[in-house]
Every structure is written in structure tokens, then in C-alpha cells.
Design brief:
alpha+beta; single chain; 1 helix; 4-stranded antiparallel β-sheet
């Protein structure tokens, strides 16, 4: 009768290596799923917030602002502040961005209809050379490398100086011509864009959200990296 034997050291080492490899793949896969989920949440918030502002302006007959803070910062405690946004109803028709306080957004008597914070690691940014030119009829919207320089390239209507640096707003106003106006000095009348981006060692994602000035139409497209 053949005497039973246990596993050899080589066999145990091989099994451990296989398990470690499978575990690493599983962790990477879960990280990718979370990353895609965070990116989808952020882009959905941007598009949904802009569409809400447009719909509320039309339905109420009042100006509604979509405001975004694209800053990413780390405080003294090591906490990371991600980009954030608000949809603000201009109650008196006299909204003043220079007096507006993002930490008390209704202090001027206006009403916040919606607001949110981006998931960790999702920013208004992109790799060098992106975003690239958009397809017709959005080709005149400023992006990196286009004939109309975008400054900053990833939020073409955001401010580049002052107390509200890297903040920007889109104003939807029914009956106005054009129907949408933007903050910032580099604001071609045709339209503006935001680029939402997340990156990691496994996969990068990027989407450009464009807003047409005359109609207030909102267009989004992923861009291959």
C-alpha cells in the first residue's frame, strides 16, 4: 500500500503564490470598479446639476446659477478638499459673485436648489494636451490646443485670479440672448466646457462637458487617453 504524504514545500509555495496573485487581481479589480463608480457619480452630478439649473430657470422664469469650485487642497489635518458645486436660484435677480460666500451660500437671500462634492480623486483637470477639439457643432468651444485658448484649459469659464480663483459659474436666464452667460475673462460667446478627470495606476477616465451659450444645451463626451 502506498503511504500517503503531505504537500511538499515547493507545492505549498506555489499555492501561496497563486493565491497572492489572485488576491492582487481581485483588489485591483475592486479598485477599478470603485474608480469607475466615483467617476460616473461626478460626471452625473455635473451634467445633472447643469440640466437642473437650465430646467429651473425655464420653469421659474428666473435666473439660476450653476457654480463650481474646482480647487483641490489639503488642510493642516491632512484632509483633502475636493471640487464642489451648487445650483443657486437668484431670488432677487441681483446675484453678486464677489460677495457670495461658498461656506454660507444662501446668506445673500438666494436659494440653493442642489449641491454636492466630488468623490475623492475626481477633479476638474486632464493630462497635458487634453481635452482635445470637440466634434461639430461644438468645435468652437475652447479646449486645450484649440484655436481659442482656454485658460484654464479644464474649466474654460473659471476665474484665474482674485478671491474666487478657480471658481466659475454658468448663468441660465430665460428670455436672455444668449440664454447662457459665463464667469471669467476668456468667455467666447459660443460656449464653454468643464473637463472631469480621474487617474490611478490602473485606469484613467476623462469626460468633457460642454455648454452652448445660445440654447443652453449640454453635451458630454468621453475622450480616449
Amino acid at each position: 500500500m502506498r503511504k500517503p504524504r503531505g504537500f511538499t514545500l515547493v507545492e505549498m509555495a506555489t499555492a501561496a503564490l497563486v493565491l497572492a496573485t489572485l488576491s492582487a487581481l481581485a483588489v485591483a479589480g475592486m479598485r477599478g470598479i470603485r474608480q469607475r463608480g466615483s467617476f460616473a457619480s461626478a460626471t452625473g452630478d455635473v451634467i445633472g446639476g447643469l440640466r437642473l439649473a437650465r430646467a429651473e430657470a425655464s420653469g421659474r422664469g428666473q435666473a439660476v446659477y450653476y457654480i463650481i469650485d474646482t480647487n483641490v487642497a489639503t488642510d493642516a489635518m491632512g484632509n483633502v478638499t475636493e471640487p464642489r458645486w451648487w445650483v443657486l436660484l437668484d431670488i432677487g435677480g441681483d446675484f453678486n459673485f464677489t460677495l457670495w460666500d461658498p461656506n454660507n451660500p444662501m446668506a445673500l437671500g438666494d436659494k440653493v436648489l442642489s449641491s454636492g462634492i466630488f468623490p475623492l480623486g475626481v477633479t476638474i483637470s486632464a493630462p497635458s494636451g487634453y481635452p482635445q477639439a470637440l466634434p461639430a457643432p461644438y468645435t468652437l468651444i475652447p479646449v486645450a490646443g484649440s484655436s481659442i485658448p482656454a485658460n484654464p484649459a479644464f474649466c474654460s469659464f473659471c476665474l484665474t485670479s482674485g478671491a474666487r480663483i478657480n471658481y466659475g459659474w454658468v448663468r441660465f436666464a430665460p428670455g436672455a440672448a444668449p440664454a447662457v452667460t459665463f464667469s471669467g475673462s476668456n468667455t467666447p460667446a459660443f460656449g464653454q466646457q468643464l473637463t472631469v478627470y480621474t487617474n490611478s495606476s490602473s485606469k484613467n477616465f476623462m469626460m468633457v462637458v460642454a455648454i452652448l451659450a445660445r440654447s443652453g444645451a449640454i453635451y458630454s463626451t468621453p475622450q480616449a487617453l
